[in-house]
Design brief:
alpha/beta; 30% helix; binds iron/sulfur cluster; binds S-adenosylmethionine; 11 helices
Length: 351
């Protein structure tokens, strides 16, 4: 049992930020993606190998440390927090963190506009209602195929029924669901239309993602890579895609599909760069702040948090992070047999 429920809601987080987070390229940081574990109950082939080595638990931030860190970000003007992983819902007592952070939501008199998560949905059946009560309104769910056998091949676990139950539970709890699918050459490329049609029929938007060369996996990255401009052309043969003005300040470009009435997002790190308006920072479960998903630059917030002067040290570490946030990522996906662009897996930094 954790004592996170006893944590006070700091007044600091309710007032206007004294020193907003602005980087060297004048981008204002308002979005924190916070990983709460590197562990996962699936083993998606594009994300991690079957025999993944996970971090020793002592290296991972406690729920109280995660909470303190998150409130420190809110005090500096962060208005959106996404909890991610690994699989965030495999972490014990994680709903306590949502409940504690939920008290900072604007709807509850705080300064946080949105508290959300990215999940594979295997545990959502058990948690959807509690998350909604904690103040979560929207959830991103990763789903790359609706075919049970393909799902098992892709995630190395036979969990599609459980995931579909999780998605239904989220809908029943009143959460707005967005599905994320990684487009994979020769794996799910023929299923993308069906996945979009199903999702839009259920009232869920869909975002497609190009695979990124993060961490060693057991497959050749170039063989997985499916450029989304080709996918979009194929979709346009069936549907009318109208550019949407929806924007999250994030990497996705959006289209409304006239025939389905649903929205389609495309995240194209390779065929289109999206860094200009980047408003986010990422923190791993060990408290390493990575200002860019595609960069090696980092600042150690855990050392700052566990120092004798945590507030001062964390503030200084955040200031340092702002000076090293790169202008753009430099992912490359053009060399067969190349080492990963970065050794760390997506499950480490949080997708
Ligand atoms: N386990 C949760 C899930 O799958 O939703 C949250 C963490 S997962 C790392 C976050 C997102 O990253 C997922 O949508 C996943 O599909 C995506 N992802 C993982 N590895 C990737 C890679 N190498 N390239 C592109 N997307 C990746
Ligand atoms: Fe787990 Fe998400 Fe990575 Fe799949 S993408 S292995 S669900 S962390």
């Amino acid at each position: 049992m954790t004592d996170i429920r006893q944590r006070d809601v700091m007044d600091l987080a309710r007032t206007a930020p004294a020193r907003p987070l602005v980087d060297a390229f004048q981008r204002r940081i308002t979005y924190l993606r916070l990983s709460v574990t590197d562990r996962c109950d699936l083993r998606c082939t594009y994300c991690m190998p079957e025999r993944m080595t996970f971090l020793p638990r002592k290296d991972v931030l406690t729920l109280e440390e995660l909470y303190d860190l998150a409130t420190g970000f809110i005090a500096r003007g962060v208005t959106k927090i996404r909890i991610t992983g690994g699989e965030p819902l495999v972490r014990r007592d994680i709903v306590d963190l949502f409940r504690a952070l939920g008290r900072h939501l604007v709807s509850r008199g705080g300064a946080l506009k949105e508290l959300t998560l990215t999940t594979n949905a295997t545990q959502l059946g058990a948690h959807a209602e509690d998350l909604a009560k904690a103040g979560v309104e929207r959830v991103n769910i990763s789903l790359d195929t609706l075919d049970r056998e393909h799902f098992e091949r892709l995630t190395r676990r036979d969990a599609l029924p459980q995931v579909l139950e999780g998605i239904a539970a989220a809908k029943d709890a009143g959460l707005k669901v967005k599905l994320n699918a990684v487009a994979l050459k020769g794996v799910n490329e023929d299923e993308i239309e069906g996945l979009i049609a199903w999702a839009h029929g259920q009232g869920h938007d869909v975002t497609l993602i190009e695979v990124m060369p993060l961490g060693d996996v057991e497959e050749e990255r170039l063989d997985q890579y499916l450029p989304l401009d080709a996918v979009k052309s194929r979709l346009e043969q069936r549907w009318t895609l109208e550019p949407s003005d929806a924007s999250t300040g994030g990497p996705a470009r959006y289209w409304d599909i006239a025939e389905t009435g649903g929205r389609l997002g495309l995240i194209t790190p390779h065929t289109g760069n999206f860094c200009e308006g980047c408003n986010r920072l990422r923190v791993t479960a060990t408290g390493q702040l990575y200002p860019c998903l595609g960069g090696a630059e980092r600042v150690d917030l855990r050392a700052a948090l566990r120092s004798d002067e945590p507030e001062k040290q964390v503030a200084e570490a955040l200031n340092r992070a702002l000076t090293i946030k790169p202008e753009k990522h430099h992912f490359r996906m053009d060399q067969r047999g190349a080492a990963p662009h970065l050794p760390r897996h997506m499950s480490m930094t949080g997708g």
